[in-house]
Amino acid sequence: SDSSVCTINAAGTITSLSQGSTTISATLGSIVGSSALTIAAPILQSIAVSATQSSLALGLSQTYQAIGTYSDGSTTDLTNSVTWASSDSSVCTINAAGTITSLSQGSTTISATLGSVVGSSALTIAAPLLVSISINPLNSSLSIGLTQQYTAIGTYTDGTNSDITANVTWSTSQPILATINNSGLLSGLSLGLVSITAELNGISATTNLSLSL
Asked: Cβ of 9: how many Cβ atoms within 10 Å?
C-alpha cells in the first residue's frame, strides 16, 4: 500500500526501502487478503574496532575507533556510543572515548560493545622506546692534553631514564681537535671548538666543547 516503504515482487518477496508502515496484499480474482508490515530502524550487525597500531611501545597512547555496520548496509561511527574494555587491565586501560593508557608490557584485547554486538582488536604493549638523549657535561671547556668523561642519559616513552653511556655511538666533529672512545672518554688534542655527539637507534644529542691551553 506504500511503495516508498517497501516493494514486493511476483514471488511475494519484499524489499524494504524506508522506515514506516504499509499493508501487504494478495489478490486473486475478487478475493483479497492483507497483512500489516512495519519497517523498523536498521539493526546493528557488527562492530569493527581499529587503531593506528596493533603493537605500541610502553608509555604511549592511542585512540580506537568503532564503526558499526547495520542491516541496511549503512555504517556509523559508534566510538562515543559503545562500551570500551581491555581484557587485561594490568596491560592497559581504556576510557569512554576509546583512548588507551599503557601500563605494562603484554598482550590484551580491546573490545567495543553496544547491546549484544561486540567488536574487538588485539593489542600488544611492547618495550618502551628511546625518545631523547641528554649529554653531560653540556657546553664545557677543557685544556688540551687533558681528558673529560661524558655521560649519556636516555629518556624513554614510559618516562623512565637510563644511563646509556656505553650503548651510544660517540663521535666528535673534528677528530684532529679531540677524540672520544666508546666509553665516552674524550681526549683534548688541539685548540678550537668541537661538537660531541651521542647517537643510538636514530636518536642523537650534541654538545660543544671549547679546547684551550
From this structure: 8
| Distances, alpha carbon 193 to alpha carbons 18, 110, 140, 183, in Å | 78, 54, 10, 21
Bond into 128 cis (ω within 30): no
Distance of CA 49 to the CA centre of its chain: 13
**Contact by Cβ (8 Å): 111, 88:** no
Confidence (pTM): 0.78
Tens-digit pLDDT profile for residues 139-157: 999 999 999 999 999 999 9
Question: CA-based angle 185:191:192, to the nearest 5?
Answer: 85
Q: What is the mean pLDDT of residues 22-29?
A: 96
> DSSP letter string over 131-142?
EEEEEES-SEEE
CA nearest to 20, candidates 1, 46, 45, 48: 1
